[in-house]
From TrEMBL:
<dbReference type="GO" id="GO:0044781">
    <property type="term" value="P:bacterial-type flagellum organization"/>
</dbReference>
<keyword id="KW-0805">Transcription regulation</keyword>
<dbReference type="GO" id="GO:0003677">
    <property type="term" value="F:DNA binding"/>
</dbReference>
<keyword id="KW-0804">Transcription</keyword>
<protein>
    <submittedName>
        <fullName>Flagellar transcriptional regulator FlhC</fullName>
    </submittedName>
</protein>
<dbReference type="GO" id="GO:1902208">
    <property type="term" value="P:regulation of bacterial-type flagellum assembly"/>
</dbReference>
<keyword id="KW-0282">Flagellum</keyword>
<keyword id="KW-0969">Cilium</keyword>
<dbReference type="GO" id="GO:0045893">
    <property type="term" value="P:positive regulation of DNA-templated transcription"/>
</dbReference>
<dbReference type="Pfam" id="PF05280">
    <property type="entry name" value="FlhC"/>
</dbReference>
<keyword id="KW-0479">Metal-binding</keyword>
<keyword id="KW-0862">Zinc</keyword>
<dbReference type="GO" id="GO:0046872">
    <property type="term" value="F:metal ion binding"/>
</dbReference>
<keyword id="KW-0966">Cell projection</keyword>
<keyword id="KW-0963">Cytoplasm</keyword>
<dbReference type="InterPro" id="IPR007944">
    <property type="entry name" value="FlhC"/>
</dbReference>
<keyword id="KW-0238">DNA-binding</keyword>
Length: 191
């Protein structure tokens, strides 16, 4: 590939990332370019300087609330399906951006911005997270692999909704009265 074509492809890819909400720091990570080049590229695309700050780094974020767990799991399901349908040699970073673009057309990206999705993706690729299937509602969700089973709660079944309609992890697992799959579908629609 000649240099000009390479630069054009890089610009188009960067444009997609910026349009999905990525800052210069994400361009740096996804394009493998230095900080200065990423800032200049961001400015050329967005016509303004990028906000600063580090990328998300808290590996426990996905289990802090059921909503975090649900959105991480929704995103990873989309990525996983795309990956399964793509050739082995496909560029995973391009698949990642494609998966996030689909996620954003369906869900509220303020809860789960692209930079959070990138962090979740990195945690999965380095083996810190795993996909677990709930034996009660059959949904698949992400958990932190090193956590005891007791803390790998299902974001559909192990949840209470408080008086402010916020979804909280329930303190007691509902082993006596398992939630039915039909109820699980209703709960997911409320998110
Ligand atoms: Zn469940």
């Amino acid at each position: 590939m000649n240099k000009l074509r390479e630069r054009q492809d890089q610009y188009i890819f960067a444009e997609k990332i910026v349009n999905l909400g990525g800052r210069a720091t994400l361009l740096e990570a996804l394009l493998g370019i230095n900080k200065r080049a990423a800032s200049m590229l961001f400015k050329a695309i967005a016509l303004q300087s990028s906000r600063g700050g580090l990328l998300p780094y808290d590996p426990n974020w996905i289990v802090k609330t059921p909503i975090n767990c649900l959105h991480s799991s929704y995103f990873y399901s989309i990525f996983h399906n795309i990956e399964m349908g793509s050739p082995k040699e496909a560029d995973k970073k391009i698949l990642f951006v494609g998966a996030y673009a689909i996620y954003k057309t369906i869900f509220d990206s303020r809860i789960f911005p692209i930079e959070r999705a990138w962090h979740v993706y990195l945690q999965i690729t380095c083996g810190n997270y795993k996909f677990t299937q709930c034996t009660r509602c059959q949904c698949q969700y992400l958990t932190v692999k090193s956590y005891p089973v007791l803390y790998q709660n299902c974001p559909v079944c192990d949840v209470d909704i408080d008086s402010h309609k916020r979804r909280r992890w329930t303190q007691r697992r509902r082993m006596i009265s398992p939630i039915k799959p039909s109820d699980a579908g209703t709960l997911l629609k409320r998110v």
